[in-house]
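Sat 14:20. Reprocessing the chain from the morning session after the first attempt stalled halfway. Input below, unchanged.
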Amino acid sequence: MARQAISADQLLQGFDAGKGALPGRGLPWLANLRAQGRERFRTLGLPTAKLEAWRYTRLRPFEDTQFRPATEADGRINVDVIPALLKGAAARIVFINGLYRQELSNVAGLPAGVSIEPLAKALAAGSGWIADHLGRVAGETPQAFFALNTALMDSGVVVKIARGTSLDLPIEIVHVSGLTDRPIMYSPRNLILVEEGASATVLVHHVGLGAGAYFVNGATEVDVRDGGSLRHYTVEAESIDAINLATAHVRVGRDAHYEAFGLAVGGRLSRSEVSIRLAAPGASCKLNGAYLMRGAEHCDNTTVIEHLAPHTSSREVFKGVLDDESRAVFQGRIVVHKGAQKSDGHQLSKALLLSAGAEIDQKPELEIYTDDVKCSHGAAAGQLDAAQLFYLRSRGIPEALARNLLVQAFLAEAVEEVSDIGVREAMMDKVVHWLPAQCYLQEQWRGR
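Finished this time. Tokens:
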């Protein structure tokens, strides 16, 4: 018998009873924002293949799983070791199944001008600047899961870097999910404001523990003001039955720079949808990523970069490795609006298929509505180079190790786009440990 797809109303069931416990209750502006998000989600419904942006990604996991809202008890589970990526961080905030765990976090010692708080705490304290930015960076958008997050946002972080402040060490935000009795859902909402001339690095790390399904519907809004700079990195190392849908909206001001890199490793379904607006002359961005999928995992990277002003630039490089019967999607669109002369945009997507059952759908797009611009895009997919593999084997390197070395070198080109050295090393470590028996093979070969 065919499975019955879940409806938008069914996905919302069970959340009405707990809406009084959501952060910011009693704030009229937030109640109105939530109501708008809920109504918009019900109007849009769950995305289907009829929508061009969802043409290659199906929501099959929602057809056989019923999710319940995460509770405080889910967030109180014992976690022996926090899976932090960085040895040194300016601050670390930890969430367990959407619940902020103060005793596991460290936000002490931050310099003046740097503010980082859990969303719930910031709303309770009445931080006025949040009302001026939450929901404003994105504006009205036809993204159903962003609307759902607006209605149900229950966790997340607000970060504010004051004018002229420079934060040298990264801020690490850790989301740990899993180890619950039934499938859960939670909706983290992050808001990052980098004021004029300020700079910072933010790393968001999602990690799944144990078996079992969960659904993380995350959304992020970023505003980088004139002359500001933000390095924004994401690592998704999810459990085998996890769903992680992330939507981000970014505004980059005059002579400001935004650098993003996302590494996806595992998960039944992961999708990162990023929209960047280069809003003033001199604005620039680097939007890069890498993914490693095996089994029946599915990864989707959908991006839009809009050049709204002259003398803006963007660079976008995504590289992925697919094994077994995994599947990936890359949809990248660069839009150069009328009047945005001297814009410079580059986009590249490459995928390495390690098995006959792996599949990649790539759709790079350019939309140019003005003249005197420099734009390029490209996409390619293929298998390991037989000549390179033969060369390594002829030097006495075992075949399995040679394959791993070629995969590592392929992804290193993308990971090298990460300008923060500590984060880059942590991401390469994730890549190496994903490769089958990498450490064992290297030790065996070196000790022969």
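The CA atoms of residues 319 and 350 lie 5 Å apart.
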